[in-house]
Amino acid sequence: MIRRTGDDIAVVDTPDGVFLAGGGIEGNETPDDAIIRETLEECGLVIRPGTWQIRAIEFVYSSTELTNFEKRSTFMEAVAEGVRGHSERDHKLMWLRTEAAIRALSHQSHSWALDRWREHPAASVRPRR
Question: Which CATH class is domain 2-118?
């Protein structure tokens, strides 16, 4: 969950749906490394991860591969610190209020994680490296 001021949450609108920013871990990346890289690539946001995390497993259907996948996700809190250009032209960054984001998200696990996150006081953000 990437937030800026107040109740604004970053979501990414793609041809496949609306999602929380993020993606797969590559090589020896940590979850922190992956969310920092993926968020910059997908929507051009420079972020600082927080300490709050939750995990979920969801079965999702891929219309491009015509099969179901077991999607294992780690959701993390982060704070947006700036904007740079991004490389994925078909990804559009949108800032939505938490309630609107929960309703807009395409994967149930994303909505569930955002709902769990809003039930907890804001977690502390990690110091700058």
Answer: alpha beta
* Domain definitions of the chain by residue range: 2-118
Unique residue bearing structure tokens 């929380």:
20
| Amino acid residing at 45 | L
**How far apart, in Å, are the Cα atoms of 66 and each of 13, 61, 63?**
21, 7, 5
pTM of the model: 0.85
Give the pLDDT score at 129.
Answer: 54
Summarised one tens digit per residue, pLDDT across range 35-93 is 999 999 988 999 999 989 999 999 988 888 899 999 899 999 999 998 887 778 888 99
Quick: pLDDT tens for 17-35. Answer: 999 988 889 999 998 999 9
DSSP states of 17-58 as a string?
EEEES-----TT--HHHHHHHHHHHHH-EEEEEEEEEEEEEE
**Structural contact between residues 118 and 32, judged by C-beta atoms closer than 8 angstroms:** no
Tokens standing for residue 44: 């051009």
Q: In the structure, how many helices (H) and strands (E) does the chain have?
A: 3, 6
DSSP state of 5: S
